[in-house]
Write a structure and sequence with these properties.
mainly alpha, 14 helices, transmembrane, transmembrane helix, SLC35_F1/F2/F6, SLC35F_Transporter
């Protein structure tokens, strides 16, 4: 990524973070479109999405002939957490309201802060915590607007849906923090994405055959459904292609804070497709969240966590194969 000045790094982190948030909104739009067409296929969506990551980034990794910088088995729990965070969140929409889910997704922020502090040794300044709080206040304005429009829906089993969201946020934060650790300790972006894709695809495929195949067989597929799944896959692929760079530039907490604007981007999408009128609170909320993101980023002292092991080589050995050739290979391949 090159050497960034503080202002340059902040700009890139903000820009990529909003790209991730926009892709998240597009993925949600396509999922809701599938639901409106009577298709309940979170595992099938995951299969296509993780397969796209494995195919593209796996091909890049093979073409460049890079050896794995991190042992393959470390990616199994990361992919498990990542895939099931997406699955549980999609399932929650069947039981709880959109407003409730949007509010509970904020739990990714404290989980991310706690996990990065515990496992990466990241230290947060008071101004960074204030910036995080400002982001949440911005989201509260969105929820206020939703409540006034009474467009959230009650949900059939709200307690179950809310519980699924909370578990999803724990999984999501854990996956993000794990990826941040791998990327900042020598992992290649292409490697992380390809291995996430491989194991995410395998987990999704096994569970699809176990739980979802019969339901999919009964669906009368149409061109609109196909386009919705294609749109979801492209959005997912773009999101995951940008997210590692946010993790490298500013960490998991910045990525989680950036995703708070997802609901505002969803409004923009609804305006474009449905010519929906927008409450002025959405624009104010977007500005407040961006202000909080700038506050957080500008007061970040160093994008490298204060994880105190004996040396950089010992941190590499924690993840690398106990093979002398594999360890020696770490010094020859730069981060991308």
């Amino acid at each position: 990524m090159g050497s960034f000045s503080i202002s340059g790094r902040v700009c890139w982190a903000l820009l990529l973070g909003q790209g991730v948030s926009l892709c998240l909104a597009l993925a949600g739009f396509n999922t809701s479109l599938l639901a409106s067409l009577g298709v309940d296929s979170p595992l099938a969506q995951s299969c296509f999405s993780y397969f796209s990551l494995a195919s593209v980034y796996g091909a890049i990794l093979l073409y460049r002939r890079h050896k794995l910088q991190v042992s393959w088995y470390w990616y199994i729990p990361v992919a498990f957490l990542d895939m099931h965070s997406n699955f549980l969140l999609n399932k929650a929409y069947q039981f709880s309201s959109i407003t409730s889910i949007t509010l509970l997704v904020c739990w990714t922020i404290p989980w991310g802060i706690i996990l990065t502090r515990m496992f990466l040794g990241t230290r947060y300044s008071i101004l960074q915590l204030v910036g995080s709080a400002v982001c949440v206040i911005g989201l509260a304005l969105v929820l206020l607007s939703d409540a006034e429009s009474d467009d959230g829906g009650g949900g059939s089993m709200p307690l179950l849906g809310d519980g699924l969201v909370v578990v999803s946020t724990i999984f999501y934060a854990s996956s993000n923090v794990s990826q941040e650790f791998i990327l900042k300790d020598g992992g290649l972006v292409e490697e992380v994405l390809s291995m996430l894709g491989v194991f995410g695809f395998l987990f999704s495929l096994v569970e699809l055959f176990a739980f979802e195949l019969e339901g999919l067989a009964s669906v009368n597929w149409s061109a609109e459904m196909t386009w919705a799944i294609t749109g979801y896959t492209l959005s997912f692929f773009s999101l995951y292609s940008m997210a590692p760079y946010v993790l490298k530039l500013s960490g998991a907490t910045m990525l989680n804070l950036s995703s708070l604007t997802c609901d505002m981007w969803a409004v923009v999408i609804r305006i474009f497709f449905y010519h929906q009128k927008v409450d002025w609170l959405y624009f104010l909320a977007f500005a407040v969240v961006l202000l909080g993101l700038v506050m957080y980023s500008r007061n970040e002292k160093d994008p490298v966590p204060g994880h105190d092991l004996d040396s950089e080589s010992s941190r590499q050995r924690l993840l690398a194969e106990p093979n002398p050739e594999a360890i020696a290979g770490n010094d020859s391949v730069p981060l991308t």
